[in-house]
Write a structure and sequence with these properties.
Elements lengths: L3 E3 L14 H9 L13 E6 L5 E5 L14 E4 L3 E9 L2 E8 L11 H11 L5 H9 L24 E2 L2 E2 L15 H19 L4 H33 L4 H15 L2 H4 L16
Antiparallel strand pairs: 1-4, 2-3, 4-5, 5-6, 7-8
Amino acid sequence: MSPKSVFDVYGNSQEVRAVERRTLLETLAKQLPVDSICFSSKLARIEEHKYGETLLELVNDYPDGQPFGQRVNYIYGQGIRAGYVPVSPTKVYWFVCFNSPSPGPKITDPIVLKKQTKELIKKWPSELQNIVDATPDDTIIWTPLVDRWLWPGFSPPASLGGAVLVGDAWHPMTPNLGQGACCALEDAVVLVQKLAPALKAGPMAIEDALRSYQTERWPQIFPMTVRANVVGAVLQLENPVVCAVRDNVLVPKLIRLGLMLEHTNFEFEPLPQTRV
């Protein structure tokens, strides 16, 4: 069965925006004291300007500019799928997911990873193959996808004593909805809103605040984690008959990512300013 491509992923009230992880981390890091966090990037050269400015030239996938429009591109077949989306004028993020009975050995050699990736997509559109070819070897990574469903009454609490979990530490989810980092940021916002007034009231109030944080976040996190898992399972079905129904009826006629992400709308008041 030939792979199918999906390009229409927008709804009436939602849009997908890709954010480069490094850009997000650096934006957040700017709110911290200088030198609190150090990042490393692959440099081509460092150039000193006469007015004291320093120019860092980074190695890019597409030094002359990537040719892809601002849209998410999905390609899927039987037990395997792929996608790519621009994250900057010179960089494109891409992924390939495939079913496997076990995680298998950990592979860290990027040359081997690229070779295996190209073998997986050798019969797929040349555009995707060209993207993989243009990717620097040392930027390719492999990791198994995992999640954790926070079943009510069975899952461990988000906090114990003075320790509290946020983001993937509490609720890792498969990346099929692009909401992992978003949920972690939302966790942090709610946690600050709960803790700010409690810090002035003492230890008992802090424990209550942590429990309140879990109570508020659970209704948002649990369905999102399940939904992300289900989307990935549907897009990596292997039965050819079921795949035909998915490719020709389910995805093109029934699924719209915008509608599926309505629950991700998140609004909050300005965070309180508290000194510890």
